Amino acid sequence: MHGRKRIPIGQAADKGKDQTKTNNLKKLLSDFLRNHHERCYSKEALKQNAQLLELNPEVYTAWNYRKLAVRHLFESEIDEAARKLILDEELQLVERALQSNVKSYGAWHHRKWVIDFGLSSLDHEFMLLKMLLKADCRNFHGWNYRRFCVEMKGMTPEKELEYATEKINENFSNYSAWHYRSKLLSPLIKGKENKEDVLNEEYRLVNQAYFTEPDDQSAWFYNTWLLGETKIESGPHVVGSWPEDGSSISVDAQEGSSFVAVNFRTPLDSEHRFESRTLTLVIYFNEEFSDVAATIRSKPELPHLSEVQWRSVSGTEAPSRAWLADIPVQSFAETEYTFFVEVSSPKECQNTPISFKLKYTKRGTSEVSRDQNSRSECYSWPSKKSSSDESQVGMRLELERLTVDPSSAEPGSIKQDPTRYLRRDNWQETVLEEQVDILRELLELEENSKWTLLTLARVLAAHGASRYTDEVLKLYKRLPDIDPDHADYYKAQYSILYVDKITRSPDILQKLWWDVEDRLSAGWLRWNGLSLSDFRSVERLLWVQRLDLSHNQLRTVDGLEAMQLLVALDVSHNKLPNITSLASLRLIPSLQYLNISQNEIGDHQVDATRYSFPSVLTNQMCFSSLSKGNVNAERSWELQAVFGGMNLKVLDIAGNSVASDEIFRETIVRALPQLELLDGEQVKR
Amino acid sequence: MSVEKMTTFQLEKHVDYIKSLDKKADFDSVVMEHLRMSGAYWGLTAMDMMHSLDDMDGDEIAAWILKCQHDCGGFGGNLGHDPHILYTLNAVQILALFDKLDVADADKIANYISGLQKDDGSFAGDEWGEIDTRFTYAAVNCLSILKRMHTINVQKATDFLVRCRNFDGGFGCTPGGESHAGQIFCCVAALAIMGALHHVDKDLLGWWLCERQVKAGGLNGRPEKLPDVCYSWWVLSSLVILDRAHWINKEKLKDFILNCQDQDRGGISDAPDDAVDVFHTFFGVAGLSLLEYPGIKSIDPAYALPVHVVDRIFFRQKC
Ligand SMILES: [Zn+2]
Where, by residue number, does the polypeptide cross the bilayer (chain B) (predicted)? Predict the structure, then answer.
């Protein structure tokens, strides 16, 4: 029931009149159902049925009955003109039914069903639609029906575009018409030449709309779409890899074991070491792909390299940006190799081979035992030099004053000109500059318009020039004050852009470096207390082994799974709401130390990340593969789904409301067979 | 909206309101007669969220549900009404609520639903061929509950939903149809159940959905429309599935829903001071559940059943 006023207490409705109406409807309903079951399609029965549908077009079975009746009548009527008369009656009834409820799905479908016979005049339908969309220009049934008739009549998109323009000019806040435009134009802007003309015209139209209806959402949403189509694009290409292009690594293998230690230089000029059983290569694309192939060659040549398969980091068929390949170490001989990795599929991927040098040494058992000692240090964090809140705030402010130098190379990514893939041309520059000017002009009229400010931020970001980064950050910082209801949206945008900025600049990244004397533990990335609520840019961090994200506002660690070298992760003091928000970590086999203490795990009855990873709920996993032991399945499925198969040795969960739950702790211990320390205490098994 | 109104949740009054519906014989109940199955689903799920399902006679309801089943396997909206995919879903949902899924022949129901899938992956609502993404949701939800997903072509079902995606990241009834929060819920929830959420642009759609909140706190279903309690469910459940529910002002939404209660006679309406109905009562309670209102059981945003029911279906038995 929509838009009907509540009757105040004591003021009863007219009982007598109501009763007659009710009895009448009841009788029509029961008479129709009887006729339906007896397959009685007499004139009288059809008349009663029509009365019912006029009063209540939502009785779907009553429309079904009419379709059966039409079929029945057609049996004895092969003459086309006579059949048309039968159908005309149906069309007239639909019109009367729509008068009582214009949103009746059943009535609209009945009309389509009748028109589908091809005996009725479509001109009449267009005339009706004109009236209907004049009375209610947003009626989506009407628009859907119009699309149906347009297809039936074989009308051109150009002609329909005229109609959409007419409707928008009548009323700039007709979102339905803007939507229709986007549908009609999508196929037309595929070719480059057409695209520029078409988009120029569309920008002209939205600009007009801003000035006429500045507070209406329609044109602003439309602009966001135009912007996506205008964006200075780069074709698919590799944006990050491990090992990096041009880097050198050394691999030490323990004799008689598959144990391998790898040394490499990080982009920030420090030595890194990690221990693994295989050498896993990572390539990271700017787009998601569901299938990737890349050839791996080496000099001198190694056997079996051609057999190496690439797999997406998620291990599912879903498209992914991060792809992995495991190189068999046992075939190496003691020597130096140069590797070349070249993407062969997807074909449109522009790339030059990623090349890196690898020095291989085989060590005796005695030499490796020293390594075993340092292994435990992998997951013990160095003491934080300055952990007081005050100094963190200080550092944050200092960071914000730093600006990005566009000429600086990108750390952690392939050492190539970052703009080399940009297909920048004059048209795009001009369009975006024009938009910037128009939006600034609008801001002069109304300086606190959220739509103008947000769109300006997006246009500047779409431009892609780093000189705008700080202005965009400022805009996102300002928007929560103007539109506090959506503050978290703007904060997320700010956070994403901020991380993008700091990962592009070695100067800034250097300041977020773990400041310790121990050479071995140098190169731990510390991003605590930065108010981060979201971030991407993982492609520039593939080499990171230890990451401190504590004291931020993160609700998920999605995306981190591409960091396949990660050994230790501190996400304490964040806003992680539940166990499933950690799901991506199960894809990092190297992870040994995890601190999720002081989050909100157990505080929330709503689990918003329940569907973001393959599980029995998403029909991608059979429960029997999760269920082990006698743990209550209904309570522990998420623990098993997330932690089962992880190699954690140290886990901190204190300060979450679930942490005091004994069953929870027991299930965790069971799910993590290698766990040694839980909240600092030795695990007893 | 009068300011002096108490804005607490009137649990007992809503429970009494829902209980009273079955005995009603007024004009509105005759108007809703053909969708009694949906009415029962809305009312009973709300009762469960309000810890009062035990007040209802599960055996009697299950017997009535089975009487609404046709030889083809599908269920009608009431006795004597034709089978339809929407009521088939509701029938299965109610049986799940009462933990009585075993009284129905799952293969027969699955056979009816899989028979409605078209070559392009879409689903018809019934034998008369109306196509709508709502029916894809009904099919996918129902078959997942019955553990019969293998009876349909999941890849094609996904592809069809992707064809219904729009410039704003939302989804419509059919390819070309305008984005609408109700359809968005159907498509997002169906993709979630099929493990295909990667087809959704979470940031773009999340932003569009969070812009459904109007200044007064309520949510609308499309740009420049009025807020309505039913969108507390359609929009909010989609935002929860996309993990973007924090992008709206939850306090304001909670107040909007509470202000749509009939404080005296129970029930929730579409807008403050409008006439209440079971549909909006369910969506209001479900919205409050997603807002973690104390004392209301948690509802699953995709299956539209209480979480404990969904967990019971998937984690109690082996598949
Ligand atoms: Zn409503």
Answer: none
Residues of A in contact with B180 (CB under 8 A): 140
- For A614, the closest of B195, B265, B273 (CB atoms) is B195
Nearest CA distance, A483 vs chain B (angstrom): 10
- Complete edge-to-edge strand list for the sheet that includes strand A336-345: A271-276, A260-265, A248-254, A354-363, A336-345, A293-299
Complex ipTM above 0.90?
Answer: yes
| pLDDT at residue number A422 | 56
Alpha carbon of B54 to ligand 1 centroid (Å): 28
Domain ranges of chain B: 9-315
Chain B neighbors of A611, CB-CB under 8 A = 192-193, 195, 197, 241, 302
Alpha helices in chain B (DSSP H): 11-21, 27-31, 36-49, 58-67, 85-97, 106-114, 133-145, 154-163, 181-193, 202-210, 230-241, 250-259, 278-290, 307-315
Q: Say if strands A248-254 and A260-265 run parallel, antiparallel, or are unpaired.
A: antiparallel
Q: What is the pLDDT of residue A277?
A: 78
A555/B129 touch (CB, cutoff 8 Å), yes or no? no
Residue B167 pLDDT more than 70?
yes
Question: Nearest chain A Cα to B147, which residue?
Answer: A619
- Out of 1.10.490.10, 1.10.357.10, 1.50.10.20, 1.10.10.10, the CATH code matching B9-315 is 1.50.10.20
- CATH label, A16-205, candidates 3.40.250.10, 3.60.15.10, 3.40.50.2300, 1.25.40.120: 1.25.40.120
Q: What are the backbone dihedrals phi and psi of residue A240, each rounded to the nearest 5 degrees, phi first?
A: -165, 155
pLDDT digits 0-9 by tens, A115-139: 999 999 999 999 999 999 999 999 9
Q: How large a percentage of chain A has pLDDT more than 70?
A: 86
**Average predicted confidence (pLDDT) for chain B:** 95
How close B56 comes to chain A (CA, Å)?
A: 25
Chain A residue closest to B317 (CA)? A623
Short-list A39, A36, A92, A86, CA closest to A59: A36
Answer whether residue A386 shows pLDDT above 50: no
| CA–CA dist A328, A331 (Å, integer) | 6
- What's the B261 CA to ligand 1 centre distance in angstroms? 14
pLDDT class for A252, splitting at 50, 70, 90? Answer: confident
- Residue with the bigger pLDDT between A193 and A523: it is A193
Q: Does the CB of B236 have a partner CB in chain A at under 8 Å?
A: no
Strands A248-254 and A354-363: parallel
Model pTM? 0.94
Split at pLDDT 50, 70, 90, the class of A9 is confident
* Residues in A touching B196 (Cβ below 8 Å): 318
Q: What is the DSSP string of B41-68?
A: HHHHHHHHHTT-GGGS-HHHHHHHHHHT
What does the block give as tokens for B37? Answer: 């199955």
Look at B178 and A143 and tell me if their CB atoms are within 8 Å.
Answer: yes
Dihedral angle of Cα A488, A493, A496, A498, to the nearest 10 degrees: -100
DSSP state of A65: H
CATH of A506-682, one of 3.40.640.10, 3.40.30.10, 3.80.10.10, 1.20.1540.10: 3.80.10.10
> How distant is the Cα of B264 from the closest Cα of chain A, in angstroms?
8
CB–CB contact B197 A67 (8 Å): no
Q: Where are the domains positioned within chain A?
A: 16-205, 238-367, 506-682
pLDDT at residue B53 tops 70: yes
Task: Select the residue from A24, A213, A606, A628 to test the B interface by mutation, using most B Cβ atoms within 10 A.
Answer: A606
Q: Between B81, B196, B249, which is nearest A61 by CB? A: B81
Asked if the domains at A238-367 and A506-682 fall in one CATH topology, the answer is no
Distance A322 CA to ligand 1 centre (A): 43
> What is the share, in percent, of chain A residues with pLDDT greater than 90?
62
Write the CATH number of the domain with boundaries A238-367: 2.60.40
